[in-house]
Design brief:
The complex is a heterodimer. Chain A is mainly α. Chain A is built from eleven helices and no strands. In chain A, helix 2 runs antiparallel to helix 3, helix 3 crosses helix 10 and helix 7 crosses helix 10. By secondary structure, chain B is mainly alpha-helical. Classes of the chains: A mainly alpha, B mainly alpha.
C-alpha cells in the first residue's frame, strides 16, 4: 500500500472517530479519543511493521461500541477480587453482554469473535518478544478497574484487544489473497455486510434503546 | 527407564483408583433419582427381562419420561447381579471407567505427540492431572452416564490415531464412538464434529488409496452405519425429542420477550429497523453464542463451577485454581509449537461445549463434561513447560518457585478433598436426596401395620427411590407402573404403587385418614401431629417427619 493511500485512510478514520465521539460526548473526550486512535495506529505500525494491521486496529477502535459511547462498566461488585479480575476475561463480557448501559451489544461485535481467536494465534506465533507485550498489556489491563471497584474504565484492555483482532483480520486478508478472485470478493462483501449491520445495530442500541 | 515408566503409571492409577473408589457408595452422601432409576431398571431386567414399564431389553429407557440412553444400564447389570441392588453396583461401573480414562489419556497424549522427544513425561503429567481433576473425579463418583460417554469418546479418538498406522484399529474406533452414542445425548452432537476434525487434520493419511488399508476403513464405516441405524428412530421420534424440546434454547422464552420489548421501544414497532435489528434469529443466535462462550468463562472453570448443586462442590471450580497458570502457559506454548496434532486438542476443546450450548442451562459441567480431557492435556503441557524451565535454569529462585507452586497445588488438592467429603454433604443435602435409605429401612418392617402410606413429593421422584431400596419385585411393579403427563421440562413421575402414594401432603385433609403413615417435610407436618420419627440431614436439618394416623 502506498504511503499516500495509507494516510488518506487514516485521516478518514480519525475524522470518523472525532465525528462519532463528538455526537455522543463533548469536544475534549472527542479530541482525546481521536488522539488515542492515532496512537494505536502508530504503536501497531511500529510493533508489527505492518501498516495494514495498524489501519485495521485503529478502524476497529474507532468503530467499536465501547469506544463510541465510552459507557461506564459495571461488573459484579459483590464477588471477590480474583473473581472480579477473571470476569474481565470472559468472552461473554467482550462479545455479548458488555454489562453497560447499552443493551443488546457487547464491547465488540459478535462476528469478530473468530478473528479474535485467529489474532491470538497470530500473536503467539510472532517471533519477537517485544510483540508479546500485547499479552501483558491485556493481562494487566483490568487491574486498575478491579482495585478501584470499577471506578476506572478498562480502556487498558480495549487497545490490546483491537490490535489482536486486527492481526486476525490481517491474516484473513492474506489468506483471501491466495484464493480465486470471486471467492475473495464474496468473502469481503460478507465481511462488509456483517460490519455495517453490526455497526448500525450498535447505533440503534445507543440512539433508540439507551433512552429507556 | 521403561520399567520406571510402568511404575509411575501404576502409581498414578492407584491414586486415581483410590480417589474414585474410596467409600464411593457413601460419598456423595445420598443417592439420586437418576441413579436409582438406573439401578432399578437393571434389576428389573435381570429378574424379568423387562424394564420398569415392561419393555423388553430396550435401548432407551422411559424412566421419568426423559428416555435415558441405555448403555449405562447394561453396564450396571452385571454389577447388580454380583453385588445385589445397592449403591455400589450403580456407581462402580462409572468409577472403573473413570480410572480407565486416566490410563487412556496417558496413551492418547503419547499418541498425539509421538513425534516429540518428551512425549512420555508429558503424557504422565496429563494422566496425573486427570487422576486428581475435580471435574473428572466428581463425575466418576456416582452413576453418571456422561463419564462413560467421555470414556468412549477418549478411547475412540485414541484408536483413530492408532488406526492411521494399523488400519485394524478402525474397528475399535468405530465401536467406541458408536457406544458413546448409545450412552449419552451430548455425545450424539460432539462425536460427528470430532470425527470431522480427526479426518481433516489427518486427511492425507485417512484417505489413502491402498486396498489393504482402505478395506478396514470401509468395513468399519459400513459396520458403524448399520449399528447406528437403531439410533435414528430414537432421535427423531417424539419420545426421543421430548427431553431435548424441554431443554433447548428455544424452550426459553426470554429472548423472545426481549425481542418484543426492544421492538416496542422503537417509534414504529413493526418498522423496518425494528424488525431488522430485533428478531428471533438475532436474539436466539446471541443467546446460543452466549451459552457457548459461557463455558470458557474463567470464573466457571476455576472459581465457581456449575450452578447446579448436584454438579458442583461448594467453593470449588471445575479445575484447581493453580491450574489457571498451567492452562495459560500450556495453551501459549502448545499453540507456538510446530505440530499439527495440537489442533486436535484445541478443536476438541472448542467443540466440547456444543451440545451443552444448545440448551438454556449454561454453562453446564455435566453436558460439557468431555471438555475436561482437552483442558487437562493443555494444563499438563503447562506443567511440563514449567519443569523444563526449572531444569534449564537450575537457579535457587526457580527451584524455590517450583516448590512453592507444588505446595500451592497440594493445598488446592487438600482443600478440594475437604470440601468434597466434609462440606458437600452438609451444604447441599438436597442435591443427592439424602434420607431415603434411612426412611425405607424404617418403613419396610412396619408397612404391614398400615392400609396406606403417603409420602411427600417434595424431593425428586420419590417412587423410584422406594422401589430401589425396597427391592420391590419388578414383576409385581410392572403392571402398576403409570407415569403422569410430562411437565414442561419433559419429566413425569409415578404417583402410586402398592400401598404407597406420592404427592404433596395437605395436612388438613390427610389428618382425616385412618390407619395411615404420613411422611412429609418439616413444613408439611405440624409439630402436634403424632410424629413417630424424624430423619435428619447431616447438617441436622430435618428431611422427613413420619406421622401416624
Amino acid at each position: 500500500m502506498s504511503k499516500k493511500y495509507r494516510f488518506i485512510i487514516l485521516f478518514v478514520i480519525l475524522i470518523l472517530t472525532f465525528g462519532f465521539r463528538f455526537c455522543s460526548l463533548s469536544f475534549f473526550p472527542a479530541f482525546s479519543g481521536t488522539l488515542i486512535v492515532f496512537f494505536v495506529y502508530l504503536l501497531s505500525e511500529k510493533l508489527f511493521k505492518n501498516s495494514r494491521v495498524a489501519l485495521i486496529a485503529s478502524f476497529l477502535l474507532a468503530t467499536s461500541p465501547w469506544f463510541i459511547f465510552s459507557p461506564e462498566e459495571k461488573i459484579g461488585l459483590d464477588s471477590g477480587i480474583i473473581s472480579r479480575y477473571l470476569a474481565y476475561f470472559s468472552p461473554v463480557y467482550f462479545f455479548i453482554e458488555g454489562n453497560f448501559n447499552i443493551r443488546y451489544s457487547g464491547l465488540f461485535y459478535e462476528f469478530l469473535l473468530p478473528f479474535f481467536f485467529l489474532g491470538i494465534y497470530m500473536l503467539i506465533k510472532k517471533r519477537r518478544l517485544v510483540q508479546q507485550i500485547i499479552f501483558f498489556w491485556l493481562f494487566l489491563g483490568p487491574i486498575p478497574a478491579v482495585l478501584t471497584f470499577n471506578k476506572v474504565g478498562i480502556f487498558n484492555m480495549i487497545v490490546p484487544m483491537v490490535i489482536i483482532i486486527g492481526l486476525g483480520i490481517d491474516k484473513f486478508l492474506i489468506w483471501l489473497n491466495s484464493k480465486p478472485r470471486f471467492i475473495a470478493a464474496i468473502c469481503c462483501l460478507l465481511f462488509a455486510i456483517c460490519y455495517l449491520y453490526s455497526f448500525a445495530r450498535c447505533l440503534d442500541s445507543y440512539y433508540v434503546h439507551s433512552a429507556y | 527407564m521403561k520399567k520406571f515408566q510402568v511404575f509411575l503409571i501404576l502409581l498414578i492409577l492407584i491414586l486415581a483408583a483410590f480417589l474414585r473408589l474410596w467409600k464411593v457408595s457413601e460419598y456423595p452422601t445420598g443417592f439420586n433419582a437418576d441413579e436409582a432409576a438406573i439401578g432399578y431398571n437393571a434389576y428389573s431386567l435381570l429378574k424379568t427381562g423387562q424394564d420398569e414399564y415392561g419393555a423388553s431389553w430396550p435401548l432407551v429407557f422411559k424412566s421419568f419420561g426423559d428416555y435415558k440412553p441405555g448403555l449405562y444400564f447394561y453396564l450396571v447389570l452385571p454389577f447388580v447381579k454380583i453385588f445385589g441392588l445397592n449403591e455400589l453396583a450403580v456407581r462402580l461401573p462409572s468409577a472403573i471407567l473413570g480410572i480407565l480414562t486416566v490410563l487412556l489419556v496417558y496413551f492418547l497424549v503419547k499418541e498425539i505427540f509421538r513425534d516429540l522427544p518428551f512425549a512420555i513425561s508429558y503424557s504422565l503429567f496429563a494422566s496425573f492431572l486427570l487422576a486428581i481433576s475435580p471435574w473428572h473425579l466428581h463425575f466418576s463418583r456416582g452413576g453418571w452416564e456422561t463419564n462413560t460417554a467421555t470414556f468412549f469418546i477418549t478411547a475412540g479418538t485414541f484408536f483413530f490415531l492408532k488406526a492411521l498406522k494399523n488400519p485394524k484399529f478402525y474397528l475399535l474406533f468405530a465401536i467406541c464412538y458408536l457406544l458413546s452414542l448409545y450412552t449419552y445425548h451430548s455425545a450424539r452432537i460432539i462425536v460427528p464434529f470430532l470425527l470431522l476434525i480427526l479426518c481433516l487434520i489427518n486427511r492425507r493419511k485417512v484417505f489413502r488409496r491402498q486396498f489393504d488399508y482402505s478395506k478396514w476403513l470401509l468395513v468399519s464405516f459400513i459396520l458403524a452405519f448399520i449399528l447406528a441405524l437403531p439410533l435414528l428412530p430414537m432421535m427423531f421420534s417424539e419420545e426421543g425429542q421430548a427431553r431435548f424440546s424441554g431443554l433447548s434454547i428455544f424452550a426459553d422464552q426470554g429472548p423472545f420477550w426481549a425481542t418484543n420489548e426492544a421492538r416496542g421501544e422503537h417509534q414504529n414497532p413493526n418498522g423496518i429497523t425494528a424488525v431488522v435489528f430485533h428478531n428471533k434469529v438475532i436474539s436466539y443466535g446471541r443467546s446460543w453464542l452466549k451459552g457457548y462462550l459461557s463455558h470458557f468463562d474463567l470464573r466457571f472453570l476455576f472459581i465457581t463451577g456449575d450452578s447446579i448443586e448436584r454438579n458442583k462442590v461448594p467453593e470449588m471450580g471445575l479445575l484447581y485454581f493453580f491450574e489457571i497458570f498451567t492452562v495459560a502457559i500450556g495453551s501459549y506454548f502448545l499453540l507456538k509449537m510446530k505440530n499439527k496434532n495440537k489442533w486436535l486438542v484445541f478443536f476438541w476443546l472448542s467443540i466440547s461445549p456444543l451440545a451443552s450450548s444448545l440448551t438454556f442451562q449454561t454453562p453446564h459441567a455435566l453436558r460439557a463434561h468431555n471438555m475436561v480431557i482437552p483442558l487437562t492435556i493443555i494444563s499438563a503441557f503447562g506443567v511440563y513447560k514449567i519443569l523444563q524451565w526449572t531444569k534449564e535454569n537450575m537457579s535457587s529462585i526457580f527451584v524455590i518457585g517450583l516448590l512453592g507452586y507444588c505446595f500451592i497445588g497440594l493445598l488446592n488438592l487438600c482443600y478440594y478433598l475437604r470440601q468434597y467429603y466434609v462440606e458437600y454433604p452438609k451444604r447441599y443435602p438436597l442435591a443427592w436426596e439424602h434420607g431415603f435409605k434411612e426412611l425405607v429401612e424404617l418403613v419396610e418392617p412396619i408397612q404391614d401395620k398400615y392400609d396406606q402410606i403417603i409420602i411427600t413429593d417434595r424431593y425428586d421422584q420419590p417412587y423410584i427411590l422406594f422401589l430401589f431400596y425396597l427391592k420391590y419385585p419388578p414383576e409385581k411393579y410392572q403392571p402398576q407402573a403409570k407415569l403422569t403427563m410430562r411437565d414442561r421440562f419433559g419429566f413425569g413421575t409415578v404417583r402410586s404403587f402398592d400401598k404407597f402414594e406420592f404427592r404433596k401432603i395437605d395436612w388438613e385433609e390427610d389428618k382425616k385418614t385412618r390407619n395411615a403413615l404420613i411422611i412429609g417435610t418439616d413444613e408439611e407436618i405440624p409439630d402436634d401431629a403424632n410424629i413417630i420419627k424424624t430423619i435428619y440431614f447431616q447438617n441436622n436439618q430435618p428431611v422427613f417427619q413420619i406421622a401416624e394416623r
